[in-house]
Structure formats: C-alpha cells, structure tokens
Design goal:
There is one protein chain. The chain is elongated and about 70 Å long. About 50% of the residues are buried. It is α+β, with helices and mostly antiparallel strands. It folds into 2 domains: about 5-215 and about 315-380, Antithrombin, subunit I, domain 2 (Antithrombin, Chain I, domain 2), CATH 3.30.497; about 220-315 and about 385-415, Alpha-1-antitrypsin, domain 1, CATH 2.30.39. Strands 1, 3, 4, 5, 6, 14, 15 and 16 form an 8-stranded mixed beta sheet that branches. A 7-stranded antiparallel beta sheet has the order 2-19-18-11-10-9-12. About 25% of the residues lie in helices and about 35% in strands. This is Serpin family protein. It comes from Methanoculleus frigidifontis. InterPro entries: Serpin_CS (IPR023795), Serpin_dom (IPR023796), Serpin_fam (IPR000215), Serpin_sf (IPR036186), Serpin_sf_1 (IPR042178), Serpin_sf_2 (IPR042185).
C-alpha cells in the first residue's frame, strides 16, 4: 500500500421500494387520512443513543446466531436507511421499526437528531476525511406523497431523482450504482446486483458514508512479525502481528477483572477512534457482555492515557448478511409481510420489504484502516505511572472492536475478530 494511503471507511446503504402490480400507478386520488400513531419505542431517546442501542442489539443477535464466526457491519448505515424508510411507515409497521431502531418517540427530536447526525458526519483535514450522503431514486410515473419527499429532503438531505424503473430497470440500476461508486471513491461497486431493480420497483433510498484516517500512533511495518492467534484453547492460526512499544506508546486504556479496553485514535484531532475490547482469558463472553450502549459509555469514561505495549494483528474481513429473519426476530415482522403499512410514502398499503442485505469489508494495517459496507433494503409490490508495571495489550485471541465518532459517541462500525485469515 502506498505510504500516503490512509485508513478508509466506506458505507453505502440502499433501500429499494416497489409497489403492487394491480392499480399501483393510478393513485392520484389515494386517501391521505391522518396515519395511526406508532407505538413509542420502549427506549426512546436521542438519535445517537438509539443508533448505538440498535448497534449492540444487532451485534448480539448476529453473535448468538453464529457463535464462531467473524462479524463486521455498520449500524449507522442500517439505522439511517431504515429511518428514512420509517418516515413512510404507519401503524404497527412504524411502531415495530421504531422499537427495533430505538427511534425517539418525539417526531421533532427524531428528525432534527438525524439532520444533526448527518451534518456531524462531515469533517476533514490533512489526515482524515469523513462524509455522508443520502439520495432518493423514484419511479418517474409513481405519485409519491409530497410530504414524504419533503421530509426526506429536509431532514435527511436526500434529494430525489426520477428514473424509469418500469421501462429501463437495468439502466436505472447502473445509474444508482454509479452514484454509490462516486460517493465511496469507487470502493463500493455494483451495490445493487443484476436483477435487483425490476418494473415493480418504485423507490430506491441510498446512504453512503466515507472515512479516511491514519493512526495517531502508526505501527512500524518493519516490526510486524508472524505470531500465533489463539482461536480457541485447541486451535491457533498464524497472523502478521503489529506492535507498538516503548516510551511513546501512550494510549487511552482501561481494564476490569475480565477484560482490557484500548482506544487507538486517528490522527489530526478528528476525534475518531477504534475501541478494542480484549477478554483476559480468551473467552469472548466478557467482551460481548461489555458491548452494550451503557457499558461502552462507562468503559470510554474509564479510559486514561498511559503507557501500553500494544500487539495487534493486521487483518481483513469480508462479511455478508441477509437480515429479514434477523430483524423479524428483533421485533419488526410486519414490514416483511402483506400487512405492512408504508402508506406514508404513497397513500396506499401496497408496499412491503422483501430483502435486507448488508455487506461489509475492513482492512487494518500499520498505517490505519480501510473499510467498506453496503446495505440494501428491497420493498416490493405485493402480487501509565512510571513505577507501575506497563500493561501488555496482546490481541492474540478473539476480540471485539468498535469504530467511534468520539464527538458524539456514535458507533460507526462494530465487529468481532474470531478467526483472522492466516498469514
């Protein structure tokens, strides 16, 4: 990798919406009665708190579903995309989505919160770049409700572009994919696979987030050496292990009886960091029990800068998830059935979610981090002190890691390294 190249996070989220085959176009006279009020989520709060709670909920669900696999995804991508979808949901459908996403029950708090979050994820300097973008892509003949389009534009900065999904679905798919590629510096390509747009598609919602950054304390590539990584008491794999030791190895650090927590910050005063949760006995349970929104906040408060000898593996992960069953189990089944109510989009109850797919990639090396992620949601028509011992942070066994916006505490990415690729 070019020495000037710095860590990169890319996130693209897509929500694809369609309509019902019979009578789906002629809706100008559709009723626009006041929608039912969604049931307030049990843990309604501010947007960042809700997004982080959703991050931890989804992480634990994925971890429980697959106890011995790597995990990596971007919760802020999924929650942002589904929040725009939620703006068009009503009744039980809206209540379930709000509950799973932990959306604020207060409309003003929710909308201004997402507007602030979107604006806050845009900053940059010589060392880091962070930006996000949303967009709506609408079937040109379909009469969406003006208030839905206006809400997406005003609070989510999602401007609408009309496309011919009915007559030119493949060309429309390529247009959207090119936008995603531009927003992500070509790191996410062919986000919408062939066949994902068809004549029944009515709306595609895209979200992209892009980050580059170098470590504040970079690792010396000449000191990286192969070492054992303990997958389990009975299995090890060889990995390239980076190291940072010596008097200048000063990191935000904390430990409990069961785990060590280390924050590796990115350069340039961007207030972005990677928080690593390393269990002391090699059992992931301690780290995963700490991976709750409140527990993470307490750990971050406990961090104090001190000398730490750090040993951390270079690794790359590629993960893919199909989430309808997961989200259904988490408490939002209605959105995936014919009983779904997205009448806030078009004045009808003809739309329901048919697919939620998330793909993510991360590469961690001596200079920084490179990561990319994409989400697709398809909705279709129904037919240390000197005298003290210096801690050693040796990540040679499974661990959890979180990429954070330290200004707001927003979890941008979250993952688990259980079995890194062999060297």
């Amino acid at each position: 990798m070019n020495q000037r190249w710095i860590g990169l996070f890319v996130l693209a989220a897509v929500v694809v919406l369609g309509g019902i085959a019979a009578g789906c176009i002629d809706v100008p006279g559709a009723a626009t009665a006041e929608p039912e009020s969604p049931t307030p989520p049990a843990a309604a709060g501010n947007v960042v708190a809700g997004s982080n709670a959703f991050a931890c909920d989804l992480y634990h669900r994925l971890a429980n579903d697959s106890a011995t696999e790597n995990i990596f995804f971007s919760p802020v991508s999924i929650s942002s995309a589904l929040a725009i979808t939620y703006e068009g949901a009503r009744g039980t459908t809206a209540g379930e989505i709000a509950s799973v996403l932990h959306l604020p029950g207060n409309e003003t708090l929710r909308r201004t919160g997402f507007a602030a979050l979107t604006g806050g994820l845009s900053r940059g300097d010589a060392n880091t770049t962070l930006r996000t973008a949303n967009a709506l892509w609408a079937e040109e003949t379909y009469p969406f409700l003006p208030e839905y389009i206006e809400t997406a534009e005003r609070y989510y900065a999602a401007n609408v572009t009309n496309l011919d999904f009915i007559g030119a679905p493949e060309e429309s798919r390529q247009t959207i994919n090119r936008w995603v590629e531009r927003q992500t510096e070509e790191k996410i390509q062919d986000l919408l696979p062939a066949g994902s747009i068809d004549p029944l598609t009515r709306l595609v919602i895209t979200n992209a987030i892009y980050f580059t950054g170098t470590w504040e304390l970079q690792f010396d590539a000449n000191e990286t050496a192969d070492a054992d990584f303990r997958v389990s008491p009975d299995e090890t794999v060889r990995v390239p292990m980076m190291q940072r030791t010596g008097e200048d190895a000063v990191y935000p650090y904390a430990e409990t009886d069961t785990l060590q927590a280390l924050a590796m910050t990115y350069a340039g005063g961007s207030n972005l960091s990677m928080l690593v949760l390393l269990p002391k006995d090699g059992n992931l349970t301690a780290a995963e029990e700490a991976c709750g929104a409140e527990n993470l906040a307490e750990l971050r408060q406990a961090l104090a800068r001190e000398r730490v000898d750090v040993f951390f593996p270079k690794f790359a992960l590629e993960e893919e998830y199909s989430l309808p069953e997961t989200l259904t189990a988490m408490g939002m089944p209605a959105a995936f059935t014919g009983a779904a109510d997205f009448s806030g989009m078009d004045g009808t109850k003809n739309l329901f979610i048919t697919a939620v797919v998330h793909k993510a990639f991360v590469n961690v090396n001596e200079e920084g981090t490179e990561a990319a992620a994409a989400t697709g949601v398809a909705v279709s028509l129904s037919a240390a002190p000197i005298d003290e011992e210096v801690p050693v942070f040796r990540a040679d066994h499974p661990f959890v890691f979180v990429i954070l916006d330290d200004d707001t505490g927003t979890i941008l990415f979250i993952g688990r390294v259980f079995r890194p690729p062999a060297a």
